[in-house]
Amino acid sequence: MKKTSSGSGRRRAAAPPRAPSVHRNGSSSNGAAPRGRRHGDAEEKPAPLVLEPPIEVRVARPADVAWIAQIQGLIREAHEAGAIIALRSSDYLAHAIRDRRAVVVVRHGTLVGFATAHPWESERYVSHSAMVVSPELRGRGLARRMKSALVELSRKRWPNAAILSLTLSPQVEQMNKSFGFEPVPYCDLTKDPEFWKGCEGCIHFAHLKRNQQQDCHCWAGLLMPVGQPREKIVPRDAHGHPSASSSH
Question: Does residue 47 belong to any structural domain of this protein?
Fold first, then answer.
């Protein structure tokens, strides 16, 4: 009698069905749609790339007088936030714009920055002032771009003028030094009384007046005309004695 093998009368249990393989495109070998998406569903598209509007820095045009109220708003906002910046009248700004000695920053058809240049003492000196940038665009190098445009404008309009700077801001001081400004005593700056009137709104004006415009808290710098060395002057007070600024 033939022996049967162990387990005679029983059938081997069927192996569990294999999971369908999934291809790279997300479809399975049995034609099923990938989990989370049904047949007929549209494929997800990547979000469109949003391009930021370009920012233009240029010399002002006469038509830019339409932005005077906005410029004054930026200056007033910076002033109220604690910046040492003089408030400017609409006539002052309009004259600077129409005379094309101002620089504007435009983004998507809107003014977002401004600065101006002003000659003094029969164009012997030029100052840069009223530099402002919209708060949401600060820290993006726009002040440097405006300063570069102002220096270029000043060199073209007043090639023999020394560009002067007075600032309480360490950031502006460092930027000016990177453009070649050198620290100078106050006696090297313009004597034009109209220039010094711009300091009347500063919290340190009493100190400046007490020192007869020979010394104050601002850093003073000059960028001399190309090829022209600075004539060093010993600063003296009203009595002819060397003043405190002689240590510059």
Answer: no
